Amino acid sequence: MKLAYLAKIPQAQAALRATGERVTEPRVAVLATLLSSDHAMSHLDVAAMVAKHHTIDRVTVYRVLDWLVGVSIAHRIAGDDRVWRFMLNPQASAQGAGKKTAHHAPSHAHAHFTCNTCGQTFCLDKVQPKMNVKLPTGFRTTEVDLKIRGLCAECK
Amino acid sequence: MKLAYLAKIPQAQAALRATGERVTEPRVAVLATLLSSDHAMSHLDVAAMVAKHHTIDRVTVYRVLDWLVGVSIAHRIAGDDRVWRFMLNPQASAQGAGKKTAHHAPSHAHAHFTCNTCGQTFCLDKVQPKMNVKLPTGFRTTEVDLKIRGLCAECK
DNA sequence: AACCTTTTTGCGACTCAATTGCATCTACGA
DNA sequence: TCGTAGATGCAATTGAGTCGCAAAAAGGTT
Predict the structure, then answer these.
(1) CB proximity list for B35: less than 8 A, separation 6 or greater
(2) How far apart are CA A95 and CA A91, in angstroms?
């Protein structure tokens, strides 16, 4: 699954072109890396993967990841180890995602699963939080994040 | 509400004694601080508050906070700014919480609200996530965290 | 195809929360 | 009161992430 990296490059280029922003080598490399992964990746994961095919500065990887979040191609997940992990947005691989507007549609909601043993984080597109939240009066919701911890299928 | 610190000291001492572990000045001070707050506090928040009445090393505050989490008196919340915030567990103030066993009762669930403007994080004891989660087969849940972002009553 | 302007990139230095190692001190049971 | 497991203080370290700035593209224009 990891070795699909090269095959994802054209798809990455197309998605980047669709944003109307500049298509650069670091952006293609980072996006292709995310496209080739089925779980959320830390900056370090991405940088290590990218380093197999390119020579790209750490800082650039940070900046590209942030940029991908900014143009709604990816989103970031706060881990329990104080490390951000990144994952593509559901439709990002298919269509070219939206423009830089981003910043969440009304009540953008996500669910993630993190395995306590192997530490991998997966995105649960299926699960719609949809909880019966009764916030104190005066509170308004803009975003909901559901994080589930436990054991994944492989570690169980 | 902040000034209730001194009044919380006896309660803090009692809760600590109930754990069977050592009752030390730093532990009392940190716990009394958490008892006097209605929202989650970062290490820095706690250290600053504690410093008004004691001279306690930063590292000790870190260690006491971790310890409080370990004995199930408090829990930690990962913030979007890579800073841990700490808050008492629901019943911790009343009874003496459990022994060091901890590590979550079956499917321990929490909900937190973080204000995008003032940055304060509150614990929503009322909200029970209770979502219709359909995990992929083989996955097992041990813990659920719901994080809601938005505007609190004061910032709206 | 060479040119120009705007963005990106690379590099070094830096920030800052959190951790570690170790010597010293102390809570509390004997 | 004493002895010791456990807690604390201090200094140094880690490591993710950020900043400033000069050099290097990207992509539109001529």
Answers:
(1) B4, B8, B11, B12, B88, B93
(2) 6
B135 with A146: Cβ contact below 8 A: no
Chain segment B26-68, per-residue pLDDT in tens: 999 999 999 999 999 999 999 999 999 999 999 999 999 999 9
Please give, rounded to a whole number of angstroms, the shortest distance from the CA of B47 to a CA of chain A.
Answer: 20
Each residue's pLDDT expressed in tens, for chain A with a length of 156 residues: 556 999 999 999 999 999 999 999 999 999 999 999 999 999 999 999 999 999 999 999 999 999 999 999 999 999 999 999 999 998 644 443 444 333 333 456 789 999 999 999 999 876 665 666 678 889 999 988 999 999 999 998
B80 touches strand D (CB under 7 A): no
All domains in chain A, ordered by first residue? 2-150 (1.10.10.10)
Query: Nearest protein residue to C7's C1' (by CA)?
Result: A22
| Nearest nt to the A27 alpha carbon by C1' | C8
C-alpha separations of B55 from B25, B49, B51, B63 in Å: 10, 11, 6, 15
